[in-house]
Amino acid sequence: MVLTITKIVVGLTFVYIIRKLLFPSVAHLPKGLPIIGAKEGDWFPFFQSAWRNARNLRGNMLEAYAKYKDQAAILPIAGPGGQIFVLLPASETKLVTDQPKDVLSLREVIVQGLLYEYTISDNMLVSHPTHTKLITTTLTNQVGNLLPGLSNETVRAFEEQWGTDTESFRNVGIWDSMGAIVCRATNYAFVGLPYCRDPALLSAGLGFARALPFSQLLLSFTWKPLRPLASLLFTLPCRYYERRFTQMLIPEIENRLRNIDNPTSSLSAGKSPGEVERKNDFLEWCIEQARESGDPRMCRPRTLAGRILLMNLVSIHTSSLTITNVMLDLASSTPEVLEELRAEVEQVLDECGGQWTKLALNKMEKLDSVLRESARINTLVAIGLRRRVVAKEGFITTSGVHLPCGNFCAVHNLGVVHDPDVYEQPDTFKPFRFVGLRRGINSDDPNKDHVDRARLTFAATGSDYLAFGNGRQACPGRFFAASELKLMLAYALVNYDLEIMDSRPPDRWIGILRMPSSNAKLRGQNN
């Protein structure tokens, strides 16, 4: 009986996948738009174009930019992020940027794309994402206060992952090692000591961040009526890491809640006032926010732990990809580039008394340029400003295309960063590209010059640089991420000698996402 039911479920799912690929629901899509990747004579243009795009997304997107950058087109994608998008012309990037979230929603793209309904077990995290407000306010404001601790954890993490051998070079798996370093430093800001040094907690957080996209992919190819049942199997890795993470963190949360409710209890238990002092980390801010809300559900230890786990999901993966890319770019550049960067870092540190501060990081303009240039040429997502139309009446573009409610739209990204009319020699990694551009800004208005130069920094956003999105719904944690990544890169450059590669290992595309080689190794030694 069980075997028969299993066969039925598998059979229905297979039929659903074929139907979804061959005959997608296109009634709600705008009519008369070209389909990127389709060819004349295709019997099943959505399926065939999705297949071609999956096999050669980079080439098809660059071709589409050349042919359709001034008009809307339909982009079918198979794999992660594989909704059917209406790709709007490059001239409408600002239009999309300016729309409020009750018209075009990034959050809906994330919630629907990652299938939070199934992959996140605590619905409070989805229905009440209050932690996002803390990112734009408290986390951003506290970066300077967090930097001393972040630098300590960065040093320890590099020593553990890259070693301290000054006599010989060693091979280092760049993707795995940078993921571990980012995870540890980031969790210093999230949960503080000693938990940011707990290998089991870090492993669970990193495991969850890497398991959820895989679970989502399996569920996305499952017939919707079967998803509640299939999710019991497909989300097992998510549940495993979620349970491990929350079980380890809940005792700390309960202890902090007790200290808030009865601060004298810790003193009577023999702790000094310094030991019960309120901590300055994201978990503490979440607890304060939950108590101020007056909603007892917000104060549940499981929910608070879940917020920290979600923060691991949204921050660690992208930061790991970014720092991996820049390390590979530098290791495949020239010794002169590495030496010039090292000299800048050492000079700034000397000027700032050897302290890793916001001022010191802001002075490292060559380092900042390298990060921005790497993020440009290795853009993590082929399309930018992904949004879902949530306005009931739909959305009408300036070119007259009407997108009914429920459509997904985006703008060109890959094509823009490889456009010679936008960037000189766009296919070349020029580490100090933005140093020259910033220094070239020199008008009679110092205030305007300051603003214009700031727009060319790593954490800035713009219509031709969408690494952090743009406008009202840009990445809220980009200023923290930028400081953290600058710190890591600067420390690595000063303390390790990298052996130059013959060439950078090729990337791979999974759906709309670009991934650096997970097997790439650097050869380095502590200097």
TrEMBL record:
Binding of heme, residues? 475
Recorded protein name is Cytochrome P450
Q: InterPro entries from the xrefs?
A: Cyt_P450, Cyt_P450_E_grp-IV, Cyt_P450_sf
Q: From which lineage does this chain's organism come? A: Eukaryota, Fungi, Dikarya, Ascomycota, Pezizomycotina
Q: Which domain of life is it from?
A: Eukaryota
Output one GO MF annotation: oxidoreductase activity, acting on paired donors, with incorporation or reduction of molecular oxygen
Cofactor dependence: heme
What family classification does the UniProt entry report for this protein?
Belongs to the cytochrome P450 family.
Protein source organism: Arthroderma otae (strain ATCC MYA-4605 / CBS 113480)
Q: Which UniProt keywords apply?
A: Heme, Iron, Metal-binding, Monooxygenase, Oxidoreductase
Q: Which Pfam families match?
A: p450
CDD domains of this UniProt entry? CYP503A1-like
Task: Kindly indicate whether the keyword Oxidoreductase belongs to this entry.
Answer: yes
